[in-house]
């Protein structure tokens, strides 16, 4: 099965750019995520981390 897929992919011209594009998207996404994590305000992180513990908004019948 893999031989069929590999041979079929080799016949497509210009396909070698897609792995590079996907790697670039992956790299840029995680660099942006790390930047956001390290520059986030402490108050915002504390507020968001306490949301699951906040029982004021629970509507249990």
Description:
- By secondary structure, the protein is an all-alpha fold.
- It has three helices and no strands.
- The mean pLDDT is 84.
Put simply, the count of helices is: 3
The profile of the biggest β sheet is: none
Strand content: under 5%
What is the radius of gyration? Answer: 22 Å
- What is the terminal-to-terminal distance? 54 Å
Element order: H for helix, E for strand? HHH
Tell me, rounded to a whole number, the average pLDDT: 84
Q: Count of DSSP E strands?
A: 0
What are the defining features of this structure?
mainly alpha, 3 helices, elongated
Give the structure's gist in a few sentences.
With 61 residues, the chain is mostly helical. It has helices spanning 2-10, 17-39, 42-49.
Question: What's the topology here?
Answer:
Layout: H1 2-10, H2 17-39, H3 42-49
């Amino acid at each position: 099965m893999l031989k069929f897929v590999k041979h079929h992919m080799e016949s497509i011209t210009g396909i070698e750019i897609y792995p590079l594009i996907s790697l670039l998207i992956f790299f840029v996404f995680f660099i942006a995520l790390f930047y956001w994590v390290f520059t986030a305000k402490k108050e915002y992180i504390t507020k968001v981390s306490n949301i699951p513990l906040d029982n004021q908004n629970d509507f249990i019948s």
